[in-house]
Design goal:
CATH superfamily of the largest domain: Smr-associated-like
Radius of gyration: 24 Å
Distance between the termini: 62 Å
Helix content: 10-25%
Strand order of the largest sheet: 4-3-2-1-5
Structural class: alpha+beta
CATH architecture of the largest domain: Sandwich
Length: 316
């Protein structure tokens, strides 16, 4: 057992990489979310050696299969741009082809009139292809992603039109796209790139619906509390099982929801308790408040009780 070996903890469900081995027989294992778990060497088993003895697997690291596998999505319903968290700060970018069509794919990042190619190759059905990494804290500076798809048709059949999609990631919407990535079976932020539904005439549809159903009367907005506690244990019961990125997503969604309710209810001020921690939640809340037009100002408050762990928001 050496530093760098991938091990499975016998009395837990976690797997990870050995980062430190002490003379006393203790090891430190870095699991998928980037957390370090201490354990005894007797509580861990090297995955490659154990599985090789029973199943004949090789010592090579796991890779995404480059051969077609079973398709889990309906036809033409599964091409995704996926952002897979490595830890609290890093994301891996994947192009996932969960359709039945082989595509020649070109992905580039766009800086105004300039572009840089990130991927240019054929991607078969059933493939999750990694092509880049990104830092979560630099999301505001990410360029737009331009993805072009050219169907590869080896038989004489009806032509499938090529298509392209350009995506500019918005931090306010990014965390709402959390799901499970096909083939990777990991939590990821997924952006569906195909659009196969028939385009609708929205104006004509609304007119038809208006004839059938009268416009409902809006129910009054429930007025939230003036003080909102965003500590994760106040928001989710089983928060110990969540990764840090999932906790941040839940906290920011609660912040936006409660602030929106306060604005619509006509409140003049609200206080959000976010705690100190590593400062990521406070920084993200302040950044979003600075971009809102209906906010007079915001400031750290109740320093005698919370230090810099609470923010007062004045609503215009």
């Amino acid at each position: 057992m050496n530093i760098g070996d991938r091990v499975r903890l016998l009395h837990r469900k976690e797997e990870g990489i050995i980062r430190k081995i002490s003379k006393s027989g203790r090891i430190e294992v870095e699991i998928e979310d980037g957390f370090i778990i201490p354990a005894m060497k007797s509580e861990a088993v090297v995955i490659s050696e154990a599985e090789k003895s029973y199943f004949g697997t090789s010592d090579e690291p796991d890779i995404i299969s480059e051969t077609p596998v079973a398709i889990s999505a309906p036809k033409d319903q599964g091409i995704y741009l996926a952002f897979v968290p490595i830890n609290d700060q890093n994301l891996s970018l994947y192009l996932i082809n969960d359709s039945k069509q082989n595509y020649l794919i070109h992905i580039s990042e766009v800086f105004g009139s300039n572009q840089r190619t990130l991927l240019a190759e054929s991607v078969k059905p059933g493939i999750a292809k990694k092509f880049d990494d990104r830092l979560l804290k630099e999301m505001d500076q990410w360029p737009a992603f331009l993805l072009r798809f050219l169907p590869i048709q080896n038989r004489l059949e009806k032509a499938i039109p090529p298509f392209e999609r350009q995506i500019k990631i918005k931090p306010t919407q990014f965390f709402k796209h959390l799901g499970t990535a096909p083939f990777l079976n990991k939590s990821a932020y997924l952006f569906h790139l195909e659009q196969t539904t028939q385009e609708l005439d929205i104006r004509a549809l609304n007119q038809e619906l208006g004839k059938l159903n009268p416009k409902p009367v809006e129910s009054p907005v429930s007025k939230p509390s003036k003080t909102i506690d965003l500590h994760i244990e106040e928001l989710v019961d089983e928060h110990q099982q969540l990764s840090n990125s999932e906790k941040l997503r839940i906290q920011l969604e609660t912040f936006e929801k409660k602030l929106d309710q306060g604005v619509r209810a006509g409140m003049d001020e609200m206080t959000f308790i976010h705690g100190l921690g590593n400062g990521v939640l406070r920084k993200e809340i302040h950044k979003r408040l600075s971009q809102m037009e209906n906010i007079k100002y915001f400031q750290d408050t109740q320093k005698d009780q919370w230090g810099y762990g609470a923010t007062l928001v004045r609503i215009s």
